[in-house]
Amino acid sequence: MSAAGVENNLLGGGHEERITLLLLFSCMVAASGGLLFGYEHGISGGVTSMESFLKKFFPGVYAEMKQDSTTSNYCKFNSQILTLFTSSLYISGFFASLVASHATTRFGRLFSMRVGGAFVFTGAAIGGAAINVYMLILSRILLGFGVGFTIQSVSVYLSETAPARYRGAIFNIYDICLTTAVLIANIVNYGSQKIEAGWGWRISLGAAALPAAFLSVGAFFIPETPTSIIQRGGDINEASKVLQRLRGTSNVGKELEQLIAAAAEAPTSTTTGLRPLLRIFRRNYRPQLVIGISLPIFQQLAGINLIGVYAPVMFRTIGLKESASLLSALVTRLTATASNLVATPLIDRLGRRNFFFIGGLELFVSLVTAGSIMATHLGDHGTMQSQYAQILLFVFCVFISGFSWSWGPLPILVPSEIFPLEVRSAGRSIGVALGLLFTAAMSQMMLFLLCYLKWGIFFFFGGWMFLITMFVFFFLPETKGLKLEEMDQLWKQHWYWKKFVNDEPENERLLSGAASFEPIK
After folding, report:
1. Going residue by residue through the chain (521 aa), what tens digit of pLDDT does each one get?
2. Rounded CA separation 267/260 (Å)
3. Which of 1, 106, 315, 390 shows the greatest Cβ crowding within 10 Å of its Cβ?
4. Phi, psi (deg, nearest 5) at residue 151
């Protein structure tokens, strides 16, 4: 049977899939985790371009920027301590997301959301009150813990709560929250840098406490996923009632049976602790593991850190003043939010692969164009002429548009769809962890690469964009409309991955694999 046939069978599988108010409310609260990550993702680039912030915490960078006319335009912000301010969040998020795997499985998806929100709230308070670099780094570490817990648990919650045919659109709520938060961060930065007393950066850093409080409190007013209730040995009747409320119908028997069967094949004793982390490296999980790890890493190779996180720094590099650079970054974020809204109703119709291809073409063309403009119109010294700076801003908007409906949301959505229950939490943890670790590495290296590659950095990411688009073409099957419990059919039909998928009944594999472990008491 082809992948299309599998999709048609599953869509006609007897499930009544409706959009209910409880479903929307629950998913919007969970997706608000994107506000946490998006705000932190967007605030750091603007804050590190504020003169008052640099003067207080990074006086060496500030002095070089203001006084040393011999320093190349591409190297003015090349400070490993300055980039550590950004990357420390992702490093701590790497470790937190691995711990979150066990917590999310053992104590539930909502537990990890509340913990993540609490970490971010505390980190934001310390950051807003910072008086030295050590407090800043501590703040970023706590924020990273929160982000690690949040991304891991929210993606699992949304994948298990959303109906199959609307999963892409519902997941896009998360990315809308993320891009909106980056937009808000740019607005906050633009306003706070105008405070003449020079403490506006405290508002920028401390405001992260607001979305953190919303997520932590909101998680007390939404139901746990039926999958989590059943997996943790909860009341089947309770899971049934939650499922009925989410779906808006009492006809949930078939879906409930599938959830019970999946949980029976993945008992808690084999899905907590190190067991799933060890299990996921087995040959039959190779397709999910490779895709689940590759997409978050490839997301960073698309060049988003260069144009997204460091947009204000980039605009300072080409000669714009502090206020103008933040305003230009704000324009790119408005573009991202608009593109995300456009993609929401289409992602479940056109499919994941088509958006990867369309976005990949946009990103490749924009990166090559931006590199050509920088190569011909920005030297090591002086500034770029106004008309070319405006063209470059337009090119950046095209890049952000393409990223916002392809490599922005899809590396979060697709890995959340493909893992079977017994390794779902572990799979997302590994993917999130390595994605954050690679983000940390790229953040730490970005200004260094900009300094030494100069305009060539755009061609560097353009080359990667071509390669990863080819990877998607050959190795990523279409997942739209398929139920989580039936996703393994894709790998059995795929030209390459089918040789890794073992046709032995899954419950026999699990039982034989679990025999070497003692149950968790």
Report:
1. 334 443 333 333 445 567 899 999 999 999 999 999 989 888 887 788 788 888 888 887 777 666 655 666 667 666 677 777 778 888 999 999 988 988 998 899 999 999 999 999 999 999 999 998 889 889 999 999 999 999 999 999 999 999 988 898 898 899 889 888 988 988 898 889 888 888 999 999 999 999 999 999 999 999 999 999 998 888 999 999 999 999 988 888 888 998 888 887 765 544 555 566 778 888 999 999 999 999 999 998 998 877 765 565 556 655 556 565 666 667 777 888 888 888 888 889 899 999 999 999 999 999 999 889 888 877 666 567 777 777 888 888 899 899 988 998 999 899 999 998 888 888 988 999 999 899 888 877 877 887 788 889 899 999 999 999 999 999 999 999 888 888 888 899 999 999 998 655 444 444 444 433 333 33
2. 10
3. 315
4. -60, -45
Tell me the domain boundaries of the chain.
21-501
The pTM score is 0.79
C-alpha span between 126 and 260 (Å, rounded): 44
Nearest in space to 447 (alpha carbons), one of 45, 42, 144: 45
Both tokens assigned to 467: 């390669």
Q: What's the count of helices (H) and strands (E) in the chain, helices before strands?
A: 27, 0
| Pairwise CA distance, residues 25 & 19, whole Å | 10
Q: Which 8-state DSSP code applies to residue 14?
A: S
On whether the CB atoms of residues 106 and 272 are closer than 8 A, the answer is: yes
Tokens of 270: 């084999």
The CATH fold assigned to 21-501 is Growth Hormone; Chain: A; (1.20.1250)
